[in-house]
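[Discussion] Sanity-checking designs against the backbone

I'm trying to build intuition for which residues belong where. Below is a structure token string of 114 positions. I'd appreciate it if someone posts a full sequence so I can compare it with mine line by line.
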């Protein structure tokens, strides 16, 4: 009789891959579970066509950063969107500030003329 090897369920065993990395015990999660995870994380699947060269660049960068290329793309898109939103807030904040300043000047000029 062949007894199964018992591996202590330590954090190190999970991190090293002794636990949780066996292909024979792997299974695709049901669609409901995948949907629940996406919902909990606020994620939505999208389909996008990208130049092959760009994908290869992200794959190379992902290796350097020791992560998958798709999470790296997600992070890059997130950083871009956040940066653009900040830039627009600053840009339009300056426009609004100038308009308010002009209105104040006009109001002062009207009071002086009266």
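Best answer:
Here's mine. Compare freely.
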């Amino acid at each position: 009789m062949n007894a199964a090897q018992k591996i202590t369920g330590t954090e190190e065993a999970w991190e090293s891959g002794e636990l949780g990395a066996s292909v024979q015990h792997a299974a695709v999660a049901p669609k409901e579970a995948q949907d629940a995870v996406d919902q909990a994380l606020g994620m939505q699947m999208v389909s996008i066509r990208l130049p092959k060269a760009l994908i290869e660049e992200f794959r190379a960068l992902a290796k350097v950063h020791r992560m998958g290329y798709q999470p790296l793309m997600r992070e890059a898109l997130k950083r871009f969107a956040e940066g653009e939103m900040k830039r627009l807030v600053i840009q339009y904040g300056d426009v609004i500030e100038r308009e308010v300043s002009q209105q104040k000047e006009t109001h002062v000029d009207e009071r002086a003329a009266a």
